């Protein structure tokens, strides 16, 4: 199976969790050994948001802020790629062409941000579209998608399944902004709808959830 795995910066990078990153590296290598083709997209987390704030204070525009955040995410991607070792590509992928080439070489692809104006959610969706992935799995800091933000509403209910058409209705933000922090960003939703991509959102603090989602077990929220 061709799979894109999106690991949220809120999971491995806020604060930096080297033990969790190491567990993910082992799981990704296991998936490769099982015959899966894997692309991993990492977010920049708190570090990226901190640098966005610095960029903002320096008077940088939204594009400049995004470029700084992309650099942060690529730093985590480089760490992760080094941890994976020989099973991974020779360098962090920075274009969709890089992704396709590296997959063609039979390697694990690792990347962070792609370009200003989109988050790593959208990067993962665009990659899945480009390489015709069968599944996109996102490890986040929540157990799945809720009917409203569980950080603000105690009565929020987790959804086990969600039609792709209803995805935009459960989120507050409808346009991109630097440092946006919701389970799936607005631009990614557009790509998911366009390509009819299957997405499973799971609790990323338990890396085994990624394996469970790929096996089709009842975990997180399935969006299709």
Kindly describe this structure.
This protein is of the alpha/beta class. It has a single domain (2-223), classed as Carbamate kinase (3-Layer(aba) Sandwich), CATH 3.40.1160. 42% of the residues lie in helices and 16% in strands. It contains 8 helices and 9 strands. The protein has helices at residues 9-12, 18-33, 45-57, 62-84, 96-104, 120-130, 186-195, 208-214; strands spanning 2-7, 37-42, 109-111, 135-140, 145-146, 158-159, 161-162, 199-203, 221-223. The strands form 2 sheets. A 7-stranded mixed β-sheet has the order 3-2-1-4-8-9-7, sandwiched between helices. The chain has a two-stranded antiparallel ribbon with strand order 5-6. The longest helix has 23 residues, at 62-84. The model has no long low-confidence stretch (mean pLDDT 90).
């Amino acid at each position: 199976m061709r799979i894109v795995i999106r690991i949220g910066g809120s999971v491995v990078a806020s604060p930096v969790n080297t033990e969790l990153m190491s567990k993910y590296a082992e799981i990704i290598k296991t998936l490769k050994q099982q015959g899966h083709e894997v692309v991993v997209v990492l977010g920049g987390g708190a570090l990226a948001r901190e640098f966005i704030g610095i960029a903002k204070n320096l008077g940088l525009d939204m594009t400049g802020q995004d470029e700084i955040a992309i650099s942060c995410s690529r730093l985590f991607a480089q760490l992760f790629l080094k941890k994976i070792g020989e099973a991974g590509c020779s360098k962090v992928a920075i274009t969709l062409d890089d992704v396709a080439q590296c997959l063609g070489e039979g390697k694990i692809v690792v990347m962070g941000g792609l370009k200003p104006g989109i988050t790593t959610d959208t990067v993962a969706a665009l990659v899945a579209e480009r390489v015709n992935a069968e599944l996109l799995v996102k490890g986040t800091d929540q157990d799945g998608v809720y009917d409203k933000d569980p950080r603000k509403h105690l009565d929020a209910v987790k959804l086990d399944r969600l039609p792709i058409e209803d995805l935009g209705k459960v989120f507050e933000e409808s346009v991109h902004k630097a440092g946006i922090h919701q389970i799936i960003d607005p631009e990614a939703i557009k790509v998911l709808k366009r390509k009819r991509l299957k997405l499973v959102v799971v609790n990323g603090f338990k890396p085994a959830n990624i394996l469970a989602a790929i096996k089709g077990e009842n975990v997180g929220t399935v969006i299709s």
